[in-house]
Amino acid sequence: MGIEEHVRRLIEGALADLARDGALPSAALGATFSVDRPKRAELGDVATNAPLALQKLAQMPPRAVAELLAERLRGAEGVREVAVAGAGFLNVRVTPAVFHAVLGDVLAAGVAYGRAPAATGERILLEFVSANPTGPLLISHGRGAILGDAVGTLLEAVGHRVTREYYVNDFGNQVRLLGESVRAMLEGRPAPAGGYGADYVRELAAWLGANAKEAVADPDPMALARAAVTRMLDGVPGSTVLPGIKTTLASLGVRHDAWFSEESLHRWGRVSAALIELSQRGYLEEREGALFFKSESEGDDKDRVVRKSDGLYTYFASDIAYHADKIARGYDRLIDVLGADHHGYQARVRGALRALGSKDEKLEVLLYQLVNLLRDGKPYKMGKRLGNLITIEEVVDEIDEAARRVGAGADALRYFYLSRRSDTTIDLDLEVAKKTSLDNPVFYLQYGYARACSMLARADEVFHVGTAALRLTPALAARLDQDDELAIVATLGRFPALLAEAAALREPHRIVFYAQELSQAFQSYFTRRKDDPVLPQEKHTREPGWEARWDWDKTRARLLWIEAIRSAYGAALRLLGITALPRMVRLDDAGRDGAAKATEDDEEAGT
Questions:
Q1: Which terminus of the chain is more exposed, N or C, with fewer CB under 10 A?
Q2: Domain with 60 in it
Q3: Considering the entire predicted model, what is its pTM?
Q4: Residue 515 forms part of a structural domain
Q5: 76: which residues sit within 8 A by CB, 6+ positions away?
Q6: In a domain? residue 149
Q7: Longest C-alpha distance within the chain, in Å?
Q8: Cβ contact 164:126 at 8 Å
């Protein structure tokens, strides 16, 4: 339980006592109020607007309510000081024992800190990426992939059962054009109008010509198209131009549990069945040979075509059948992660679900904005593989070439994509993302965790005071009495509530901000520890009898404190899919291995 939650429960208890004694009406127990950190630390550990929130229900001036609450709270367990401020706020300070209880909770949970028990929430189908398999994934697809993956991880962390699904658009005109483009390439003809002629199609055609001869010989044009889609997903072995959508996603640390075929909806008759039901319910209307779904009556801006005048079904017809299938599979909630150009999608699909008699509130659409690629602050518009389009594979290759040498993989890209709200545009500067120094914000983030690991390893190896056999006792906890140490404990205590909020709002950037805050506080701590180091420095060990004079209990207490920080820090990084590195290697400008980052400047701080 965090500091804020502890104080909230005390306030709720005080309100119940006041209502029982007749000092406040019982209606006051239903008030909603906030308990947060004050803007200025000197005001207290937490601040609450409870008196202001209670004034109408209590039928009393907020200042009078504040005085009543303050009087009750001053005698509560763990409360050190209560001050009435302004028109009706309370600033509360708690005793160190409350902080120590939080520390004990973190240490007891370890790597599971902040997580809820598994399978205690909803069954959720999370669909994301679902890019047309007619070309490589672009940088905007990468944002959707990383966002969807992180949202899935957050939902799992708070107890939901999540299935990650990719909807493969392997039916319709664009897929047919891909097949025709491959055939034209094989026969030495130009690609058809609206077709595909980039280098990846050349490699695709060469592989299919040598390895899928039955599909090439099949007179059905869709046979070659389906074979082409399979290879777009799986890639051409050994190709750098066409590694495959699945390989690209794996390079981002993104996984899917299921790959659902649009073509299967037509093959199984799901599309026609959904349209028959809509027709029977009176939601379809034929106009000039085309069939329309009356989506305007269901909140859309206009009615939508589901079958064109030439008899071909639209993508929207498939979408109706697909979401009806999702509902039929028994999921409690459906979440679609889509680009911002799909802003009208939710209304029309929800309308279709309502028309089919399903619970449309089960559907939730999470939109993300575009990505602007920069180089040294200037727009970078030309891709090497698709001309004016830039693939995620190109960006991953360029960023990761340096990052892999320090063991960071795709972490830089995940950081930049997750450090902003999904509804804001991202400016991704390749030169910043490629840096292997603390100027790169993801490396600074990882450095804090690596530093904690380095300190604990050094304590165990050199001074034999590691945390493995240590337990937090009241006597050890009492040695943690510095304001900055307790402030970081308070930050640790906020993590479970923050995780729950980030999952509920589908906002991974909140975890990024938390990790940044913890990193900054933890590393700033050591700039103030030159006269009071956590571990003995070399100058201490040169003095005769230093071991007897050294305060080992304080050292043990601080090491347990660092272990708790490492647990919360690592939990935050893993939720983001960013590698929690126990050690980082510094590279000079030439890319040669240098000193371990995790020990940089640590000797001076006694760490």
A1: N
A2: 3-94
A3: 0.91
A4: yes
A5: 10, 13, 14
A6: no
A7: 99
A8: yes
